[in-house]
Amino acid sequence: MPISLAIEENFNEFVRRFGGTVVSDVLGPSPNHPNADYYFPQHSAVAELKCLEDDKSEDELLQAKIQTLFDKWMADGTIPTYYGESVRIESKTLPPICQHALLEVYKTPIQRRVLKANKQIKATAERLGLQNYQGLLLVANDGNYALEADAVIYLIWRILGQSFRNITNVVYFTVNMPATHPSTSKPCLVMARAQRNHLECIDPIFMQNLTSGWIKYFEELVGEPVEERRIDGLGDLALLRYQPRA
Known about the structure:
Elements: H1 7-18, E1 21-22, H2 23-27, E2 38-40, E3 45-53, H3 56-76, H4 96-127, E4 134-142, H5 149-160, E5 169-174, E6 179-181, E7 184-188, E8 191-195, H6 204-222, H7 233-237, E9 241-242
Parallel strand pairs: 3-4, 4-5
Antiparallel strand pairs: 1-2, 2-3, 5-8, 6-7, 6-9
């Protein structure tokens, strides 16, 4: 999959073709409230797309925090001392206490996106006059190789907890980030759906159609078929490994 796609632009066009509404088409690009991206009238669903990108300024801050942790762990003997400027360490090989601390570092930028999405969904629903609605958070990873798929979903679920009740459903997916998985020799992309048990959620058939529809649209964009494989649970998802581009 050598092609690199503009996620927001292409997802906007997909939503239009799928029968949904791109909110900026109706309210304009700069309404006087924090608007969400999409509205699906038949299901009273409001959706916001957030991208996890390779943000250099944000990345530098995170790397500084991570380096401080590693320096501390090596100094107190929690982990061996590593030498070299380009040593690659997989978080899953670290002691559990270190893995947890790293996740806490990465939680902040994701929490910021969840908080903003929750406000955008609520404000857009009020602007559209919706009394009963469900909120969909779409999270597209577009270059953040530091967080594997299972870690992102785990963090989102921790952040949501019993709060952010305007978000009832979550979809996490990748577009330009091929990964490997033991179940296939072919490069993989991720499409994971989840819903919150304690809230009234979006019709699961609609969610299935939405994600399947995106896969078919993606096939059109790249000009080749996509093989779908079902994997169950975070344990299976944890076997995915992103393959950074050279």
